[in-house]
Design a protein that fits this description.
The protein is an alpha+beta fold and about 240 residues long. The chain folds into 2 domains: about 100 residues, 2-Layer Sandwich (Alpha-Beta Plaits); about 110 residues, Alpha-Beta Plaits (2-Layer Sandwich), CATH 3.30.70. The chain is built from 5 helices and 11 strands, in the order βαββαβαβαβββββαβ. Strands 1, 2, 3, 4, 5, 8, 9, 10 and 11 form a 9-stranded mixed beta sheet that branches. Strand 9 and strand 10 form a beta hairpin. The longest helix has 14 residues. The radius of gyration is 20 Å and the shape is elongated. The N terminus is likely disordered.
Length: about 240
């Protein structure tokens, strides 16, 4: 099952999964280890690299932010033998608590990897404010943000602002769209939908959007609802 040979794997699966409590704080490397364990416990012939220290051929489409609920993430897994879908689905029973297999599709080897086609992510963001949070004030702030030509703020890659690539950047190119979904003026809360860039050149964050609205708002909850691609992989169609 773990032969470590450099031979090309026979089969490639794309898996759609979600992540919620109690797995919200699970880091990416740990999740990959957990998926490897799940496939192994399900008796699946997971393919491994031919390196001196073989690595499982498991590739996430996007980096996973810590602490945010994820509803439509994509992971690709390669196998040395042909595996029917019912065995892939059965492996989902071994996923860690809080990680759920939602769908799976076999993919032709020649199709571009999901990671190479990733361009953005959609978020649902719940915010709270004070008496000044009204439908008119929030919608006006969104219009001003989308009309802004430049938006100065701190951009980071990864999870640490101490990295050398952190600093003041123009965040406006990272924000594709912002929409007001609903506003509860009595409770001083609102829900936003936003589409943020997510590719090797940079990634937007929900808090970037909320801070840019220039209103006394704080993020109560953010959910990454789905990934968006240049050429949508079969599992996300």
């Amino acid at each position: 099952m773990t032969n470590g040979t450099p031979n090309a794997p026979r089969q490639r699966w794309q898996i759609l999964f979600s992540r919620a409590e109690p797995a919200l704080r699970m880091r990416q490397a740990v999740l990959v280890e957990e998926l490897e364990r799940a496939f192994r416990e399900a008796g699946l012939p997971l393919s491994y690299s031919g390196a001196a220290k073989p690595r499982p051929r498991i590739k996430l489409a996007a980096n996973l932010p810590v602490g945010i609920e994820l509803r439509g993430e994509v992971v690709e897994a390669y196998f040395d033998e042909l595996v029917p879908i019912d065995r892939i689905q059965a492996a989902g029973e071994h996923f860690p608590e809080g990680v759920e297999l939602r769908d799976a599709k076999e993919v032709w080897h020649g199709f571009p990897s999901a990671a190479s086609q990733l361009r953005a992510a959609e978020y649902e963001v719940q915010v709270s404010g004070d008496d000044g949070l009204t439908s008119d004030s929030l919608r006006g702030a969104v219009v001003r943000l989308l009309n802004a030509k430049e938006l100065q703020g701190k951009r980071r890659r990864g999870e640490s602002e101490r990295r050398s690539d952190a600093g003041e950047r123009d965040l406006r190119p990272l924000i594709e769209d912002v929409e007001v979904v609903d506003v509860d003026e009595k409770q001083h809360t609102a829900t936003l939908r936003t589409v943020l860039q997510l590719d090797p050149s940079g990634a937007g964050r929900p808090e970037d959007v909320v801070n840019a609205l220039d209103l006394p708002l704080r993020v109560r909850r953010a959910v990454r609802t789905r990934l968006l691609f240049v050429d949508t992989p079969p599992i996300a169609r």
